[in-house]
Amino acid sequence: MRKTFNFSAGPAVLPESVLQEAADEMLDYKGSGMSVMEISHRSALFQSIIDETEAALRTLMNIPNDYEVLFLQGGTSLQFAMIPMNFMRNRKADYIVTGYWAKKAYQEAKLYGEIHVAASSEDDNFSHIPDCSDLDISPDSDYVYMCENSTIYGTKFHKRPDSKGKILINDISSCFLSEPMNVSDYDMLFGGIQKNLGPAGLVIAIIRKDLISETVLPGTPTMLRYKTHADKGSMYNTPPTYNIYIVGKVIKWIQSLGGLDKMKKINESKAALLYDYLDKSDMFCGLADKDSRSLMNITFRTGSEALDSAFVKAAGENGIISIKGHRAIGGIRANLYNAMPIEGVQHLVQFMEAFEKSEGQYE
Known about the structure:
Layout: E1 5-6, H1 16-24, H2 44-61, E2 67-72, H3 75-87, E3 92-97, H4 100-109, E4 114-120, E5 143-147, E6 149-150, E7 155-156, E8 167-171, E9 188-192, E10 203-208, H5 226-231, H6 241-257, H7 259-280, E11 285-286, E12 297-301, H8 305-317, E13 320-321, E14 332-335, H9 342-357
Parallel strand pairs: 1-13, 3-4, 3-5, 5-8, 8-9
Antiparallel strand pairs: 2-10, 6-7, 9-10, 11-12, 12-14
Helix pairs in contact: 2-6, 3-4, 6-7, 7-9
């Protein structure tokens, strides 16, 4: 049994049953006498793993047949470059800048062309999602880019931006498989799996097939072309085999709970526990505006850096791990990814109550 509750932003908590099942199969996967870590990616045994994982993801998300599912490496940060390399054919794009990672993507894209900020909440310290119902989009823009959920600032889009007919690309790293979504509302979805789906080292990209072509920016390396990976079934080179295996198990775990509709209800219940406490607390204050709050990443602070640090230290001594806010903004952050049990949130809230009653002198 776990003795701690891991609130890390990623690599993050995984379902205990998935970890146990993987442990049981560690030395001998399906009678092969080998660990999945040792199985050749060119073997029929691994081909069945990647095929089953993709099929399960397609079923869970209801991914249309005209979308490609790619298993990629390099983290989401590499996608910040791959996206303009593959899609910025007019050398122009629009970015919605709503947090640290959206800004990183915007800055990277500027290396490849003229980038316009269609909307931003930076002036308000990224505390909310800006109104995206009438975006100022460049007429000859190649695409519109967004990051649906801000891991660091704890905000989330609750309505699809109006991209005015332009290709819409969405980074869903922090909310991947946390709730249902209409894949067809977007032309590309992508995310690192290290928050909700598995161990760090794999990105899943879901892209409209007709957008994947040989037409890329001059000088784009072979490995950074989506067509390279689409043509080879995500096995142009050796993929992160163990990560794909774990993703398949996490998807089955979500299915066993009742799918994404049930997952959303569970996540809403967990988030409500913490938000309800923050809204009535005299010591702790949430950072995100109420209409932009994330279910996955809840950011807050006491108003005193010293008291924030004292809280983080005391929390760690009480089995609440990795609660410190991101280095970019400080404060405190609870990451309530799918695998965080409601007992972990209850334990956190109970500890916050005790800490507040002690006026920061908790022992």
